[in-house]
Amino acid sequence: EPEVTQTPSHQVTQMGQEVILRCVPISNHLYFYWYRQILGQKVEFLVSFYNNEISEKSEIFDDQFSVERPDGSNFTLKIRSTKLEDSAMYFCASSASLGGNTEAFFGQGTRLTVV
Amino acid sequence: KQEVTQIPAALSVPEGENLVLNCSFTDSAIYNLQWFRQDPGKGLTSLLLIQSSQREQTSGRLNASLDKSSGRSTLYIAASQPGDSATYLCAVRQAGTALIFGKGTTLSVSS
Are the beta carbons of B97 and A33 separated by less than 8 Å? Predict the structure, then answer.
């Protein structure tokens, strides 16, 4: 069964460093997303991406964050100058379309720990 | 601004019980509602999606209902098993691309 794949599963980084989280969406999907979940809190939307550009972003997704689809399969989230409060589980998701009958499928997540 | 609330926050039941998880949302203008399962430290597994025009969806022992006008959805789990122990999240999508999540109900089924 097709699935969304995220690497690495766990990343530890020092405050102020840049990190890149990687995702391989389901191959025929056209919409890609990043969400995050701080420990004990709700899953929060960060950004959606379609046709090589950002479709929608939340207030959380400020200039510290960027997304890219560098090739036909990967979708990345870059976090510049990481802060302690960026520690969270980051989930990538994809969907085939935006129709009302379209499910979003999530990866297993990357646990980012900023020390 | 859409808010999604799930009650109860935690639920413990003995194996074999039927149970209902609740989800409410403040803005009824949604495209769809999706129920997910999350195991500790893991990703989100999609369980059921209900379109705004639908009243319910079924998958195996799971049945999800949607009452859009009252801003409510329920997830019914029949004959619960220890393997059902997990956190169950509901999320709604409005105009746009973002899913808005509730905080989840953590279910524990004892054998």
Answer: yes
